């Protein structure tokens, strides 16, 4: 069986959604012998026509020396494809500069009209954006939501990463979808089989992720980071990823080592032997963060600079991650640190890669000869 997976980008581009889709494809092939044909929607993407045995096509046609996307270009690719199902990884800004990929939705609508018996499964990584009146997100949010609604209504099944998104999809689908699984994202760098207790690890703190997120840690959470290092007796901070350009020698008294961009296996090994990992992420969206997922999967002490005021997507501040507060000195002994790491780890197991694969395979398999 073959499915077609539509994604914004794939490696070598640094893209969390692309990594997520590639990990899914690997596991679907391994567990269910489901092959994946990737279609990349970003015209600026440059990569191989085959990645790890997966065929890769790109939605683009040459117009006056420039690459161009259109509903027709997408329809041409989908019409000649023999896949029984399409898996769309939807994030508006991944397919259009201002988050309104009309070409994508129009192309899928035409495909669905021509091939009504083929199924469309949409993973909503996002629904729509919002912002202050001086931003394009404010003025285009209604169009973004309209496109998401069209997708929800034409999709045979929908999946998402946040409970709030599931509620929105149920509403905008006009009653078509009632049961919408919400699966917080899994770790893109793997899930170790064995994890050491914190007391057996290096007194090392890891800052991992994209350039913008890590730069925000150093620029906006410097005092918190300093407190964390003192409180946990951190001996080294390892900065993992493309260098941020921030002068790290001025951040804290604890030495910061710029490890640079590393393979998934290397990052996994680093996390598995570190006591803690730090992020400065919007606390209500931790379920969408592959970085937070990686921290949880490796049973480190997850630390976030900010905490939510409530339980969101099953994630509770103080229980599943530590929110440092120098004024309160709130973290207790080693047992409390281990308890938070354990809670995060067990929360992660409810939606790990294995759980994802069972649900995605169930929705994608249309051949009754294949059983789960």
Structure summary:
The chain has 372 residues and is α/β, with parallel strands linked by helices. Helix content is 37%, strand content 18%.
Mind sketching the topology for me?
Blueprint: E1 2-7, H1 16-32, E2 35-40, E3 50-51, E4 54-58, E5 61-63, E6 66-68, H2 71-79, E7 85-90, H3 92-95, H4 102-114, E8 119-124, H5 136-154, E9 157-160, H6 163-172, E10 202-208, H7 211-220, H8 222-232, E11 236-240, E12 256-260, H9 264-272, E13 274-279, H10 290-297, E14 301-304, H11 334-349, H12 353-364
Parallel strand pairs: 1-2, 1-7, 2-4, 7-8, 8-9, 10-11, 10-13, 11-12, 13-14
Antiparallel strand pairs: 3-4, 5-6
Helix pairs in contact: 1-12, 2-4, 4-5, 10-11
């Amino acid at each position: 069986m073959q499915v077609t997976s539509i994604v914004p980008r794939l490696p070598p581009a640094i893209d969390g959604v692309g990594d997520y889709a590639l990990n899914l494809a690997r596991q679907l092939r391994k567990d269910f012998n489901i092959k994946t044909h990737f279609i990349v929607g970003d015209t600026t993407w440059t990569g191989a026509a085959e990645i790890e045995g997966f065929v890769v096509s790109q939605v683009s046609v040459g117009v006056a020396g420039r690459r161009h996307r259109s509903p027709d270009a997408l329809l041409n690719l989908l019409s000649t494809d023999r896949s029984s199902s399409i898996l769309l990884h939807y994030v508006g800004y991944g397919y259009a500069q201002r988050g309104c990929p009309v070409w994508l939705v129009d192309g899928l609508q035409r495909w669905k009209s021509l091939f009504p018996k083929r199924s469309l499964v949409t993973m909503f990584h996002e629904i729509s954006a919002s912002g202050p009146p001086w931003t394009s997100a404010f003025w285009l949010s209604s169009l973004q939501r309209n496109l998401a609604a069209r997708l929800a209504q034409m999709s045979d099944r929908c999946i998402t990463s946040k409970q709030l998104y599931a509620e929105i999809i149920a509403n905008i689908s006009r009653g078509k979808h009632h049961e919408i699984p919400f699966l917080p994202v899994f770790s893109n760098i793997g899930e170790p089989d064995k994890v050491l207790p914190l007391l057996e690890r290096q007194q090392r703190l890891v800052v991992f992720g994209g350039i913008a997120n890590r730069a925000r840690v150093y620029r906006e959470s410097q005092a918190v980071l300093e407190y964390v290092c003192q409180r946990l007796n951190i001996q080294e901070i390892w900065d993992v990823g493309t260098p941020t350009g921030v002068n790290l020698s001025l951040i804290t008294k604890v030495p910061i080592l710029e490890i640079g961009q590393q393979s998934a296996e290397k990052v996994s090994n680093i996390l598995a032997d570190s006591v803690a990992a730090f992020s400065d992420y919007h606390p209500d969206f931790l379920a969408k963060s592959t970085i937070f997922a990686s921290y949880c999967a490796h049973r480190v002490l997850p630390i976030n600079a900010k905490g939510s005021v409530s339980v969101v997507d099953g994630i509770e501040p103080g229980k599943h991650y530590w929110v440092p507060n120098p004024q309160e000195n709130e973290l207790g002994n080693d047992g409390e640190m281990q308890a938070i790491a354990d809670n995060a780890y067990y929360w992660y197991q409810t939606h790990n890669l294995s759980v994802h694969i069972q649900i995605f395979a169930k929705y994608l398999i249309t051949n009754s000869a294949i059983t789960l």
